[in-house]
């Protein structure tokens, strides 16, 4: 639709634009966008619709102001969106920025996305949760017994997580409660069944609750100058990590397992070929649990597997923390390029997040904090590598955002043809006519 057609079919007033900006900011915040990126998108929408509305975005709420109409809207953001909601949100925002949909229709679409039900059933999502735990067990090269324990413990935890997701009042309790239950089951299994490395094993069933992505996003926001949003998100992430470490330490104290049994023995229990299964198994699990649209499955698997193996290769020539950062930055650039040049415009975040979650060292941070709480020096020393990895990934993602215009710029076919004709003309011998 042209601008004139949109204005004729939808005579939106400034109040509609105020509501639209609020809905867009809320949806992008729930889609895990960093605050600087949200602000950039909102400015683009306001410029496209010739609106003077301004918005101040924070970690979990936003304030939208229309100075001319003397109106303001304040909105609190909710829980994180599923992948199907993220993909639909990006599609609506793209149409709004290009004025391919009316303001009122965009508001309706965004509200429908927020209220949409999961596209996957509870059983399928539970299987996805267990597969994510299995993928991480493969990443850590756990022994067969430890891998089985991780998957078995993750099944009832998945049921609790899915049940609690419909009850917002219980959500804040889930990290510490489920970590306690997971650690209790694992340490009891370790005492009576001889499992090794119970601390690292206990984190696998609750890995989706670890705020590793929030930690990286907080560092991006702080580096970009959004001190309020970044500091608030960082404080929240650290509190969640500490509460989970408290739950683990409490379970260890209840069981009475000795400090000698808490050593970091991640190792060579499983053969190296299990690493080849880690990325695809985790990717499929994430797509099922977070309800990834089927049209994105191949893209997601390709980026997840590619990022994992790029990290493995780079780890042979540089520190693992730097290798993870480079791999994550490349994954984000590839996701942007696919979004820009594929006609169906696959969602950038939906393609990128599974690879990011597989790589993000949130589990290392949790294990390190747990080591401090349990007075285990070997585990606590992992904190330095975890912090370095987070900084590396945050920096690489910021660099990728700067380089994004280079990989997303479209070159019209007419321009390519003109350049080709110009080259042909320059190659013709002098003095010979075109006829």
TrEMBL record:
<dbReference type="InterPro" id="IPR010619">
    <property type="entry name" value="ThrE-like_N"/>
</dbReference>
<keyword id="KW-0472">Membrane</keyword>
<feature type="transmembrane region" description="Helical">
    <location>
        <begin position="296"/>
        <end position="314"/>
    </location>
</feature>
<feature type="domain" description="Threonine/serine exporter-like N-terminal">
    <location>
        <begin position="20"/>
        <end position="254"/>
    </location>
</feature>
<comment type="similarity">
    <text>Belongs to the ThrE exporter (TC 2.A.79) family.</text>
</comment>
<dbReference type="InterPro" id="IPR051361">
    <property type="entry name" value="ThrE/Ser_Exporter"/>
</dbReference>
<feature type="transmembrane region" description="Helical">
    <location>
        <begin position="270"/>
        <end position="289"/>
    </location>
</feature>
<feature type="transmembrane region" description="Helical">
    <location>
        <begin position="320"/>
        <end position="338"/>
    </location>
</feature>
<keyword id="KW-1133">Transmembrane helix</keyword>
<feature type="transmembrane region" description="Helical">
    <location>
        <begin position="234"/>
        <end position="258"/>
    </location>
</feature>
<feature type="transmembrane region" description="Helical">
    <location>
        <begin position="350"/>
        <end position="374"/>
    </location>
</feature>
<feature type="transmembrane region" description="Helical">
    <location>
        <begin position="176"/>
        <end position="195"/>
    </location>
</feature>
<protein>
    <submittedName>
        <fullName>Uncharacterized membrane protein YjjP (DUF1212 family)</fullName>
    </submittedName>
</protein>
<feature type="transmembrane region" description="Helical">
    <location>
        <begin position="120"/>
        <end position="138"/>
    </location>
</feature>
<dbReference type="Pfam" id="PF06738">
    <property type="entry name" value="ThrE"/>
</dbReference>
<dbReference type="GO" id="GO:0022857">
    <property type="term" value="F:transmembrane transporter activity"/>
</dbReference>
<feature type="transmembrane region" description="Helical">
    <location>
        <begin position="386"/>
        <end position="407"/>
    </location>
</feature>
<keyword id="KW-0812">Transmembrane</keyword>
<feature type="transmembrane region" description="Helical">
    <location>
        <begin position="144"/>
        <end position="164"/>
    </location>
</feature>
<feature type="transmembrane region" description="Helical">
    <location>
        <begin position="201"/>
        <end position="222"/>
    </location>
</feature>
